[in-house]
């Protein structure tokens, strides 16, 4: 099965996959489903004997990756706090000037990337990712279909990924 066939299976089973991801305990199930969609579109695939099972496995693996990342971050933060003796009163909690400059550069690059996808896609991205509004609610607010919201989010995600890649290469 080629990539377009896998995409068709994904689209035909989107709601089922979303329920599966929610059953795994994902509070951000829509985001995880969007990440699954992006991976399907960007990963080269060959013939797949059981595409729906393959998609379930991919979704499960994404959940495992997220769980591991959270656990590792918590452990790293705990170990760092223990190693440094906890927060110090002689050190500022404010970011350094260098970090502020870097953050501003990254924010400007992200803003530029969002503007490149068009006003509606940028507004939909902000509404969903920054405000945390469910995709279906965003679709209703903008008076567009859910697939339009998903398409605009894909454009915005691609633009952000490309911007990050360019920033990392610079």
Structure commentary:
This protein is an all-alpha fold and 170 residues long. It has helices at residues 3-12, 14-23, 29-42, 51-84, 97-116, 119-130, 135-142, 146-169. Helix 2 packs across helix 3 and helix 5 crosses helix 8. The chain is globular and about 55 Å long.
What is shown here, in short?
By secondary structure, the chain is mainly α.
Structural class: mainly alpha
SSE arrangement, N to C: HHHHHHHH
Structural shape: globular
Low-confidence stretches: none
Radius of gyration: 19 Å
Which whole number gives the mean pLDDT? 87
DSSP strand tally: 0
Total of DSSP H or I helical runs spanning 4+ residues: 8
Give the biggest beta sheet: none
Ends distance: 37 Å
Fraction in beta strands: under 5%
Summary tags:
170 residues; mainly alpha
Layout of helices and strands:
Elements: H1 3-12, H2 14-23, H3 29-42, H4 51-84, H5 97-116, H6 119-130, H7 135-142, H8 146-169
Helix pairs in contact: 2-3, 3-4, 5-8, 6-8, 7-8
